[in-house]
Amino acid sequence: MKTVLYTKEGKVGIITLNRPNNYNSINDDLLKDFGEVLDAAMMDKEVRAVVVHGSGRGFCAGADLAGNLGRTPRQVRDHLNMNYGNVVRRLAEMEKPVIAAVHGSMAGAGIGFALACDFRIMADNANMRYAFINIGLTPDAGSSWFLVRAVGLAKAMEIAAGGEKIPANECQRLGLATKVVPADELMEAAMEFANTWAERPTLGFALTKKTLRYAANHSLLDTIAYEAEQQVIGLSSHDFEEGGTAFMEKRKPNFIGE
Question: Exposure winner among 22, 103, 137, 206, fewest CB in 10 A?
């Protein structure tokens, strides 16, 4: 059985972490399968938005520590850089809206996966836990990068060094969750959210994502120049032409993401 499943429902690609007996903890097979599935979703022109969720009782418990038995600390470092890093990068750079549908618990590197998505819909019984500190480790899989940018350094220190569970409602208050819904409505809410984004101009979304990520790490003048370059791409697109025409004709635009 593959550790990550990929299905489609209309214009939405659905990615399922599929190690339910292990709380979807991350092993080498899952990393390989996840990377392949993300590539498939990115290349699929019929897919305009992506939902990532976990099977069984929770989203993802983080790394399967048994998988690192026999690796030296430096081999673990290289594994994090090459394999975890590649999955997080694919999620973060996906040129389509990516929504994490989170139920139960997300912990460790599973948080890196969730925060690399553009939006997070959390069930009201879900929680987030930076559990690294509880075994004497530090955050990985990009989870520190995303956390600091979401909540600021002081709050990030409290969360990551505290190692406590953060319930869904608190995640929403902090800006770590986009929306909190009843647990039995999670996938319905995530799919409705994804379908809304699937009807929007996907290319414009990709350009916006790139621009905001650039702005987070560059000066004002550099960002102004970067924005201008991204506008060249947007102004040359079908979706810009369609959006303007639909506005003038007072009708709903038919965006195709190109």
Answer: 137
Burial 159-182 (b: 16+ CB within 10 A, else e): bbeeeeebbbeebbebebbbebbe
Judging by DSSP bridges, how do beta strands 49-54 and 12-17 pair with one another? Answer: parallel
Contacts of 184 (CB under 8 A, 6+ apart): none
Pairing state between β 49-54 and 98-102: parallel
What confidence tens digit (pLDDT) does each residue in 71-128 have?
Answer: 888 988 898 899 999 999 999 999 999 999 999 999 999 999 999 999 999 999 999 9
**Euclidean distance between CA atoms 18 and 104, whole angstroms:** 14
- Quick check: pTM over 0.85? yes
Helix (H) or strand (E) holding 243, with range, is helix 238-248
Q: Which two tokens stand for residue 71?
A: 């690796």
Which candidate, 115, 103, 97, places its Cα nearest to that of 180?
103
* Tokens 């220190």 -> residue: 157
At the topology level, CATH places domain 4-198 in 2-enoyl-CoA Hydratase; Chain A, domain 1 (3.90.226)
What is the domain partition of the chain in residue ranges?
A: 4-198, 202-248
Structural tokens at position 177: 């969750």
The helix (run of H) or strand (run of E) holding residue 76 is helix 73-79
Residue 72: C-alpha distances to residues 69, 76, 134 (Å)? 8, 6, 20
CA distance readout (Å), 164 to 95, 133, 168, 203: 33, 10, 13, 38
Select from 96, 49, 42, 117 the least CA-distant residue to 206.
96
